[in-house]
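Cross-posting from the modeling subforum.

Setting up a comparison between two proteins and wanted a second pair of eyes on the formatting. Protein 1 (sequence, then structure tokens):
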Amino acid sequence: MKLKKTKITISKVKSFEKSNLPKIQSILNEIKCWYGEKVGDIDFLTQIINDEYKPFYLAKINKRIAGIIILKINEKTIRIEYIAVDRKFRNIGIGRRLLEFVKKYCVDNQYEKIYVQTRHLARCRRFYRKVGFALIRCDNKEGYSEYTWKS
């Protein structure tokens, strides 16, 4: 699949379409081992949908869910709580598009920074540096790194 010929849409989730729930759960369940949480559980997803400070966005290609990003909004900052891309759509720019969307949201709404915490995986470190985030903390004992982007 080529990104240049593919239209990617990003939209806020306001409620779940029953038909989309298994796909959302599947994508989030791929990352739950990193977080040790039940990120794909319906109770977890419903709680996020109802939390105005945790906007939830879907990236779609031809109406198919390709990626997910869940944010946590504070007075001056945005924290990326979860970001995940369906295995079938990886390496075509979905993650980058989700982050560009959040960066624009940050600027448009006058937030100062975006934070994200990630595992010590080389591909994660490369990805966040490539999209303009700077390393601010590295905890080798706990096995994670924290990055920031300033508007």
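Protein 2 (same layout):
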Amino acid sequence: MEEVVTTSTAQLDTAAADTVDTQVTQEAPATEVAEAPKEETQEVVKEATKEEVKEVLGEYGEFTLPEGFEAPIPEFKEWAKAEGMNQKQAQSALDFYTSKVVPAMQASHDNEVKAWGEQASKEFGDKGIDSANKAVAKFATPEFKEFLNSTGLGNHPEMIRVFKNIASVISESSLITGVSTPANSKENYYPGLPQNKKG
């Protein structure tokens, strides 16, 4: 005769309760992880001030620049906005550019101008450079001279070559057409002296 196993109602209730507790314990961490980002977002929104909201929208205040330094601030603001920068971050980027990047670029350019001058000296010598300088003095406008000085292009070998060639052409032209007075005449060198004035 088979043995019949009997289970009381109390035992069944206890087993069911243990099963429910186990499921709640296992599922709880997943629920907490899913809800955490929402809570953090709400805290950020609550703590945001009106000024911070303006920064998020790209409404920047004034930026500080070194004295005498010019920069396209409207374009910079658009760039900073696109990069998601607030006022402090944008100012830091601007400070780095003006204090580090610009001086480095200037130093690089100065070295390049110096190298141009050394190359020109080797190629043309003092005589060739002197001829080029005379042509610049005679034909260049004050604005063009300022351009050569400010950019350093006055040291560039190709620029010197051009004015040296101009000086050569002028010299050859003078030899071909001739002059109306002897080459050693005082009138050629001292036209302002009383004895050289005509009339």
